[in-house]
Amino acid sequence: MPSDTPVANNPASASNCSTPAEPGSQLSSQPSCPKTASSAFGRSKTPISSRPHTAVAWSPPLLNCEPIENKIRKNIQHSWREILKECKEKDVSQLGEIPGSDFSAIAEKFNLDLSKEEFSQITTKYDIKNNGKFAYYEFLQCCVLSLKPQGSSVLQRMVVQKLREPRNPGPQSLTFFKAMLKIQPQILYCWRPMRRSFKSYDKSRTGLLNIQDFKQVLREYSVNLSEEEFFHILEFYDKALTSKVSYNDFLRAFLQ
Questions:
Q1: Closest alpha carbon to 189 in 222, 160, 145, 225
Q2: Range scoring the smallest mean pLDDT among 73-77, 89-93, 144-148, 154-158
Q3: How many whole angstroms separate alpha carbon 249 and alpha carbon 50?
Q4: 66-144 matches 155-252 in fold
Q5: Residues 86, 139: Cα–Cα separation, whole Å
Q6: Region (Disordered): which ranges (predicted)?
């Protein structure tokens, strides 16, 4: 006997996207699920050519020219002042760079004995701005100065107290290179007594001097620097702005 109780609607059936079709009904009459997101194939694509490009700064290729630099270092150290003078005469705009052809003539004049391949590697490495010019200050400082703390030097063969915290070098500006090359002869002449003077000011034996004492010792040994030159040297040796300078790192730069 059929029941008079009405049958409750099934919520689950109401949530279905479609109901079963009656026999003979058309497929197109079935309700379809609404689209909740547009198809990926329907999205418009931005042409690659119209997309913004992020400028990538050019940097010189990483070439291992150390064997070449070691080969000519002794010759460079004997005649770097004359080489620098020749380069500066060619550098009319005073930008610290000259055409590679000009450096080729200078290298031949001072008998640097570079093969064609070696010359190509050197000029590629020191084409800092990728403009076909040879950055002669960077080249000379690499051959004359030793700005890497881990490099071998006379000071490393001496007992030197290590700093409690390693000090990372700061930027190497063109003014910095010029100043370091300018004072190199005087530093080489008196570095031993100068180091003793540095140590006499370093009462706590930390290997560090405050800026005033560091500057005073330089003056005592006639190491004359302009305020701008001294600023750039401090910028390199006191990157963290601690007002302290490692005098061993400073002297080590001139001793290879």
A1: 222
A2: 154-158
A3: 51
A4: yes
A5: 14
A6: 1-54
148, 212, 219, 244 from 73: Cα distances, Å:
16, 34, 30, 31
Q: How high does pLDDT run on average in the chain? A: 76
The larger pLDDT score, comparing residue 256 to residue 131, is at 131
The confidence band for 51, taking pLDDT boundaries of 50, 70 and 90, is very low
* Distance from C-alpha of 34 to C-alpha of 39, rounded to nearest angstrom: 13
Beta bridge mates, 135 = 97
b/e per residue 229-245 (b: at least 16 CB within 10 A)? bbebbbbbbbeeeeebb
Distance CA 156, CA 151 (A): 8
**What's the distance, Cα to Cα, between the start and end of the chain in Å?**
112
153, 162, 247 from 150: Cα distances, Å: 9, 12, 15
CATH superfamily of 155-252: EF-hand (1.10.238.10)
Identify residue 251 by its one-letter amino acid code: L
Class of domain 66-144: mainly alpha
Is the pTM for the entire model greater than 0.90? Answer: no
pLDDT at 167 over 70: no
pLDDT at 223 exceeding the cut of 90: yes
CB atoms inside a 10 Å sphere around CB 183: 19
Give the helix/strand (H/E) hosting 210. strand 208-210
Residue boundaries of the structural domains of the chain: 66-144, 155-252
For β-strands 208-210 and 133-135, DSSP reports them as unpaired
